[in-house]
C-alpha cells in the first residue's frame, strides 16, 4: 500500500535507521532465553506500551523487523487525551512543542465556502484539543524516550531487524521464533503484546479473525512541502471543481509540510494515479498554478473499519491497529491505540505481581472493545457522509451541505470527521459506586479525568501511575491499602483553582468529594466523603478482586 | 405513538398541500429530490426531540 518517499534531496528522519540491528546475547546458540514481556512492533503503540511498562520497572523487549520510524503518509492529528497519556509517559512536551495547534476549520461545497468553525477548546486544560504532527516525529520522540529510559537504567530493549516468524502458545507463556540478519533464534516470554499493525502477523499466525467493512474507495494521500501562506486551518471540500464528485482535505503539519487528501473513487489504476506526472496536475488544480511545492510522500489507501472479536487470547494481547482498524476520518487510529496501552499496562503489572487475578485482563477486552466500537461507529459515519454510498445518501448529504451555508442548524449534521475523544467505560465491571449526588456526569465512574487548573499547574500532572484517592475539600488518610494494593491521597481544595473549572468538573453542586482514581487516570468510584470500607470495596472492584 | 402528533394538526390542509406541490413546480426529478431532502432536514430540526423524530421515522416506515 505504501510507496517510496519522493526524492527531496537530504535524508529525512524516516530514512534514518534509529535502532539498527545489533546482535544480542540472546542469539548465542543454546541460549535459554526468557523474558517477562515481549512486544512485537515498534510503531506508536508498541513503543507506548514499552515505555509504560519500563516506567513500572517491568523488563520489556520490543522487536521490530524494521529499524526506522513510520513509512509513508500516516497519522497527523493527535488529540488531547493521548497527549495527556504521553505526559504520563514522559514525552508529551516534545510532541506539543513541535506540533501545530489549530482551531479553525472551513468547509467548502462545490465552488464556495459554506461555513467555518472554531473548535473553541474548553479552557483550563494543559493540552490543546489537537495538534498536527507527522507520525514519524511522534515515533521519533517515543524512541528518544526509550533511549532516555535506557540511560536511566530502566529495563527496556529495542531490537531492530528482528522479525517475528512464529508464535506458539504454551502453558503460561508464549514461544517465539525470530529471524535476523544473523539467522533465526528463539525466546520464551510470559506475555506477548502484539502491536504489529493492521496486517498483524501474530494475528495471522494464530489464525484469528479480523472482521469489518472495507470502504470501496481510494484516497490519494500526499504530503507536500510548500511555502504557502495558507492559514493554519483545516480545509475540507465536498465536490470541489478541482475534484468533481469527490472530496478533498488540506491540513498543515510542522516544517511547512501540508497534508492533502484527495478522494479518487473506486475504479482507478492505483499505480498510474500515484505517478508524479498524474499527482502534480491534480495538486496544481487544487492549490493554484503559482504555488510552488515539492512532494514528500504520495500514497494511495483504501480504508476499512474492523476489529478482532477479542483482544486478549491467553498470554497474547493485541493492541493498536493489530486489534482494530478505522478509516482515518476523525483521527482515531493511533489516538485510540495509545489508550489501549494506557488501559492495559497497569493491569498487566498487577497480574504479573500476583496482586490481581488473571481475570483483571478480561476488563481490558471489555473496556477497549467498547472504545473500538465507538471509534468504528464514528469513523464509519464520517466515511458514509464523505463518500455517500447510495443515491439517497448523497441527496441528504448535499442537502445538509446546502443548508449549512445559510442555517446554523445544518452545520452539526455536516460530518467531515468527528474529532477523536476518549470513551467513558460505562458499564465496566471495574466501576464502583457513584454516590456523589449532583456531580457532573463527565466525571462519573468509567470516565477519564478531565484536566483542570490546580495552583500553578494542572491536575493531571498530579495524577496517574498508581491508584489515588483524590480528596476535594474532604478528609482522607494518607494511604489506604487492600490486599497489597495501595491508593495514595491527593488532597486539594476547590479554592486551588480560582477559575472555578476544577469545581465545575469535579464537584458540580456538591460541597466536597472523594474520588478513587485508577492508574490510567480514569474514575473508579466517587463519594461525598471518605468511608474506609466503601473505598476498600471499590479498590477491590477496580482490580478485579470483588 | 406517545409524542408524535398523528391527529390532524394543519389548518387549511388543502392550502398547505397546494403550497407543498407548488414549490416543486417546474423542477426536475433531481431538483425535487434535493428540495424534499432539505425540507425534511429543516422540519426535523424544528421538531428536535429525538423521541418524536424516532416515532416519525417509524410512522413513515409503517405500511398497511
Ligand atoms: C492516511 C492515514 C492517516 C492517518 N491519520 C491518523 C491520524 O490523524 N491520527 C491517528 O491517531 N491515526 C491516524 N492514522 C492511523 C495510524 O497511522 C495508525 O493507527 C498507527 O500507525 C497504528 O500504530 P501501531 O503501532 O498499532 O501499528 P503500526 O504503526 O503499523 O506499527 C506496526 C509495527 O510492527 C512491525 N511489524 C510488523 N510485523 C512484524 C514482524 N513480523 N516482526 C517484527 N515487527 C513487525 C512493523 O515494522 C511496524 O513498525 C492514519 C493512518 C493513515 C493510513
How many strands, what sense, and barrel or not for the largest sheet of chain B?
A: none
Q: Fraction of residues of chain B in helices?
A: 55-70%
Radius of gyration of chain B: 14 Å
Number of helical regions of chain A: 12
Bound molecules: flavin-adenine dinucleotide
Number of strands of chain A: 28
Class of the largest domain in chain A in CATH?
Alpha Beta
Shape of chain A: globular
Please, how many helices of chain B? 3
Q: What integer is the average pLDDT of chain A? A: 94
Average residue pLDDT of chain B: 96
Strand runs of chain B, count: 0
Give the second-level CATH assignment, the architecture of the largest domain in chain A: 3-Layer(bba) Sandwich
Content-based structural category of chain B: mainly alpha
The largest β sheet of chain A comes out as: 8 strands, mixed
Q: Which spans of chain B of ≥5 residues are poorly predicted at pLDDT below 50?
A: none
Share of β-strand residues of chain A: 25-35%
Order of helices and strands of chain B: HHH
Described by its quaternary structure, the protein is: heterodimer
Distance between the termini of chain B: 16 Å
Describe this structure in words.
With about 550 residues, chain A is of the alpha+beta class. Chain A has three domains: about 5-100 and about 120-210 and about 305-375, FAD/NAD(P)-binding domain; about 215-305, D-Amino Acid Oxidase, subunit A, domain 2 (D-Amino Acid Oxidase, Chain A, domain 2, 2-Layer Sandwich); about 440-540, Glutaredoxin. Chain A has twelve helices and 28 strands. The longest helix of chain A is centred in the last third of the chain and has 25 residues, at about 360-385. Chain B is mainly α and about 60 residues long. Chain B has a domain at about 25-65. In chain B, about 65% of the residues lie in helices and about 0% in strands. Chain B is built from three helices and no strands. Bound molecules: flavin-adenine dinucleotide. Flavin-adenine dinucleotide binds near residues 43, 74 and 337 of chain A.
